[in-house]
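To the team - L-tyrosinamide complex, inputs and output below.
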Amino acid sequence: MPHFEDDQQGDGKVLTKTKTKTRLARPRLYKVLLHNDDFTPREFVVMVLQHVFHMTESDASRLMLYVHKNGVGVVGLYPFSVAETKVAEVGSLAQQAEVPLLCTIEPDEGDGKGDGDGDGSGNDDVN
Ligand code: TYC
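Output:
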């Protein structure tokens, strides 16, 4: 039974409002990794990074040298479909040029703080 004071219109009817919160989960991101090899020319790697990932020549050269030294490096973080397309583009350029340049995808496990479920709770628990 509604309380007397809830009848703000004085017509015997009580209005109730329902608020619905809709939160979208943060889209999962994927790392695009570039792998070193002993055969692909440095200039070719730089050209691919500029063409496929829209890097400047100096950023592309820096990343190419990092991968050359360390064996692998992260080119960028992308939603899955974008990451997949870029990896395919690199693969197709490498195949045309007959070089073994390898690019792969790996899920971004994020900052280690969780919250991949997008609820702002700081964990990935199912609510
Ligand atoms: N290591 C190659 C060379 O010395 C250059 C290279 C760099 C190849 C980065 C692949 O992802 C790569 N010619």
